[in-house]
Amino acid sequence: MAQPTNAALERELGQLQGEMLSVKDSLDRIEGMVKTGFDKMEQRLRALEDKENQRKGAFALAMLLCGAIGAVLTKLLAGFGG
Description:
Order of helices and strands: H
Number of helices: 1
Low-confidence stretches: none
Shape: rod-shaped
Helix content: over 70%
Distance between the termini: 117 Å
């Protein structure tokens, strides 16, 4: 079996280098897509958290108002009960 020549080895190394650069480019594109996807998910999660905090605040305000209305009605109705 004959030994490969330097030119053949250099050609094969060049092909391998080209393939590796192609793989690296593909991985870079995939990494960018994943990062973009995570960024979008993070934005959506932040928006959901904001909406949940608004809902909690609205619920607390509603409970406070109901309590105040109940207290006022109790005072008013106590006067009629004699």
